[in-house]
User: What shape does this take?
Amino acid sequence: SNSASVNASGFSAVTTSSSSGGGGQGGSSNSGDITISGVSTTAAETNFKSKSYKITSGRGITAADKNTNNVVIESELATSNSLKVGSTIKVKTTDDDAKTYTLNVVGIYKAKTSSSSQGGPNMSDPSNTIYTSYTFAGTVNGDTTSVTSVVYTLTDSSKEKAFTKQAKKLISSSFSLTSSSETYALLMKPMKNVQSFANKIVWIVGIAGTIILALITVLMIRERRHEIGVLMALGESKFKIVLQLFSELFAVLVLSLVIAGVAGNFVGSAVGKQLVSQQTTATQSTSTGAGFGGGGGQQSGGGGGSAPSGAGRSGQTSMTASGSQVSNLKTKISAKSMAELGGLGLGIIAIAVVAGSTPIFRLKPKKILSNE
Assistant: This one.
């Protein structure tokens, strides 16, 4: 990313009640009334990733816009100046020897917020921010070889250390590279809350299931006292009788696992999305992924571009948190999960059968049959 400041020429910047001075043609302000935010692609820019900004007409900036004067402007700025996709606008640099650049509007975006503190008259309104390729911002600043900052976003947080180690070998010692997993931790907070909740449910189901199944088994065995007494009187071993009871419950377990395997993905996905959505809302998670900043070049030139927070002109780079949240959750039951579920079921059955059959097997066959 790169940034610069210019003055509107032939059109007017958006003014707000909190802004001092008039927008538009004037070039008296050294800070300029239009902020140029140069990016490699708007799709990766924080505000667009977080859906705070949304393309409403045309398209965003892409890698194909490198070394072009294509721009994306805010809808309020477009409306107040009767601009649309395909229109051209002119801007002037803020130095004494002002240069004029003609820009082609390829897209219009809508900002959710109406104002922000970016500093300078009129620049307090995000409507005065136009997005271009980072190369154009460098041209305005008079330095086409440097950028303000570079941010890398990893999809796998486990590769953070390896990536940082390799990246440090590629950049000069005069630059700094910082890594942060803060956004990843914020993103994972609702997921961890759901995991904790799910673990508690597993324990509750396991304990309650064992107790309930043991009581059912006791009642079932009491109803089959005569059958068990006859089998024991005929010389059948207690182990085989217990194995028979276990086999009956095991058949039910197999059927239950089949149903769980088929319906689990659908039910689990729906329940998972709902739980994560609730936890995300509760924790107000405002970031996605793990970002890494690296290799910001030192800027020079008369453009007077304002660097993003933490991305100073000395080449210091930083990671900017995104405002996105977990929105695409896919739940899949793996073979390992089914095996664990089956193992838990077998454990519950074993405990229930042993607990339920122990009172009966303490009796003698003659006593069992005499009580019928």
Remarks:
- Strands lie at 2-9, 34-39, 53-58, 70-74, 88-93, 100-111, 129-133, 151-154, 177-180, 290-294.
- The chain has a mean pLDDT of 76.
- The chain has two domains: 2-145, 149-372.
- The chain has nine helices and ten strands.
